[in-house]
Specification:
- This is ABC transporter ATP-binding protein.
- Keywords: ATP-binding, Nucleotide-binding, Transport.
- One of its GO terms (molecular function) is ATP binding.
- The protein has about 375 residues and is an alpha/beta fold.
- The two termini are about 30 Å apart.
- It has 14 helices and 15 strands.
Length: about 375
């Protein structure tokens, strides 16, 4: 649907963006993130035809923006951070004006305007002056002008900026619905918004794309391990042996302050007590070492139960584990069946995810390279 290839933009010998390169498929909602001055707005203005790139090419649905600008722009709906509204016009007169600008056929304009009034919740305000609308309704009207011509690509720059919580929820729901019929490029500073709405994340920093990934794969993209947190009912030693025996499990840890405190009090080396690291397909080869680690771990844990404030999970009680898999493999199904076959109820299983906030901070707080 959208192809941005090696696009750069220079401003008075200062580089605004450099060699931006990404594509978007039909039906995607892509979050476009970056700190102030990173190049988000410049990139969106080039995509929508308001700025010409210094180098590179932009293609909308197979149409080159440089060679077929008018046709390419007809496939785009754009809502800038400040909606392009005329305060002296009424809602109805503005929608008619936009329909004319967007070459909506005259015979279809009445139907299309009514669709906008319904979709954006503007019924009852047709004759109201735009200057008297609230911020939320102005944003709705801005969305109406962006979609009245049924574009294939929708570009939204900070669509929820300055709205109150109720208005933010309403606009997010509208964007979610629009994403069912349009390809959406969404720029926002509200990171949880991206997690709620988007199936892909682009981060730009100092004029360059530094991340292009799905929200659920951020940790993998950053080279960070992905782990699972389990709560299982049953005897500690047996549960650890069952989990450790799975081919793709490389590390198992018992989690909980009580256990760690017990191990410290016994002054046992941390590695064999709190973790078991193996890369074999089971416990063969490393089996005795792993069994010893489990036994030492359990023995020391149980020996410390006489000390105040330290509890030991006995059979019938629960144990909490942190499990790391090889090469970020998804072992949830294997864990479920292994524990079920062994007769140990799995009470909770939760994947530890790298937050978008952490990734954004890490990628955008590096010192300037002097290139931007």
């Amino acid at each position: 649907m959208l192809e941005v290839k090696d696009v750069s933009k220079m401003f008075d010998e200062r580089r605004g963006v450099q060699q931006i390169d990404f594509t978007m498929e039909r039906g995607e909602i892509v979050g476009f993130l970056g700190p102030n001055g990173a190049g988000k707005t410049t990139t969106m203005r080039m995509i929508t035809g308001y700025l010409n790139p210094t180098g590179g090419s932009i293609t909308i649905d197979g149409l080159s923006m440089s060679e077929h600008g008018a046709k390419a722009r007809s496939k785009i709906g754009y809502l800038p951070e400040t909606p392009p509204l005329y305060p002296e016009m009424t809602v109805m007169s503005y929608l008619r004006f936009v329909a004319d600008l967007r070459n909506v056929p005259v015979r279809e304009q009445k139907k299309r305007i009514n669709e906008m009034l319904d979709k954006l919740g503007l019924h009852g305000r047709e004759q109201q002056l735009i200057r008297s609308l609230s911020k939320g309704f102005k944003q709705r009207l801005g969305l109406a002008q962006a979609i009245i011509h049924k574009p294939d690509l929708l570009v939204l720059d900070e669509p929820t900026s300055g709205l109150d919580p109720n208005q933010i929820i309403e606009i997010r729901q509208l964007i979610r619905e629009l994403g069912e019929q349009h390809t959406v490029l969404l720029s926002t500073h509200i990171l949880p918004e991206v997690n709620m709405l988007c199936n892909r994340v682009l981060i730009i920093h100092q004029g360059q794309i530094v991340l292009d990934e799905r929200p659920d794969r951020l940790g993998t993209a950053m080279g960070q391990e992905v782990s699972l947190h389990l709560e299982v009912k049953g005897p500690t030693e047996s549960i650890i042996q069952v989990v450790s025996a799975l081919p793709l499990v490389t590390e198992v840890q018992i989690v909980g302050d009580g256990f760690q405190e017990a191990c410290r009090k016994e002054e046992v080396d941390e590695a064999p007590i709190t973790t078991m690291d193996h890369t074999d397909t089971g416990l063969e080869g490393a089996g005795q070492e792993a069994d010893l680690a489990v036994q030492v771990c359990v023995d020391n844990y149980e020996l410390s139960t006489s000390q105040p404030g330290v509890l030991s999970p006995q059979s019938g009680e629960t144990i909490k584990l942190r499990v790391v898999s090889q090469d970020h493999s998804d072992v949830r199904e294997a864990l479920f069946y292994a524990l079920a076959d062994a007769g140990y109820p799995l009470l909770e299983m939760k994947r530890e995810m790298t937050s978008l906030e952490d990734v954004f901070t890490r990628l955008t707080t590096e010192e300037d390279s002097g290139d931007a």
